[in-house]
User: Fold these one by one.
Assistant:
Number 1:
Amino acid sequence: MAALARLAVPEDRIDAVAGEMDRILNFMGEIARWEGGEAADGPPTTRRADEPTPTSTDGLMPTKHVDDLGSVTVPPIKGAS
């Protein structure tokens, strides 16, 4: 199975990886057999109209995305630590 997935697995990890893959395949089988069920009680789902709205870049920090050396720069995210 590891060869089919093109995984390089060290000899000492083959049994552990095989067990993990077996559990994944069993879970995928359970998902495939699931026929669904009743939705949970709650408010009904509403949909909004799918209409394009104009976007604005007001308040965004201007940045040069690629510097002279070809490195990509990412502006800081406001409020991120």
Number 2:
Amino acid sequence: MRAASTTTTTSLKILKIKEVLEMTSLSRATHFAKLDEKSKSFDPDYPKPIKLGVRSVGYVEQEVIDWLQTRMEARS
């Protein structure tokens, strides 16, 4: 039997790219530009994908929310 984790975590939800684009209102091109270090639009704070399989990636929902929150706070 597996031991219970001693750390408390919020529920972990993995988003697919379509959901990330809907949440951020970014285009696919801008999304990938923010991940590309060679791009002028590169954002080191933008949520990084996690590998789910050979041809599948996802994004941690809380990281996307945190990034959006940071952007909203920066406008002040």
Number 3:
Amino acid sequence: MFVLAATTPPLGGDVEIEFVLPPFSSVPRPTRLHCVGRVSRVETCYQLKGFAVAGQFVDECQAMPNAFVSGAESSDVG
């Protein structure tokens, strides 16, 4: 997975990322995804920064019955 971010963790660092996919046609409720892994690449291009994570998803099919998350809040769900 590649994440665009204002700041990036160090290459080789351990990370946990959690985000929520909004409902769509085949999945009627928001779905939380949780990835545990290691930073495998850090990139900067012009004013954009980002990093790649090599890892595994944990509980990737866990539906959130009452969640509402906007795109701006998706990286800070708890």
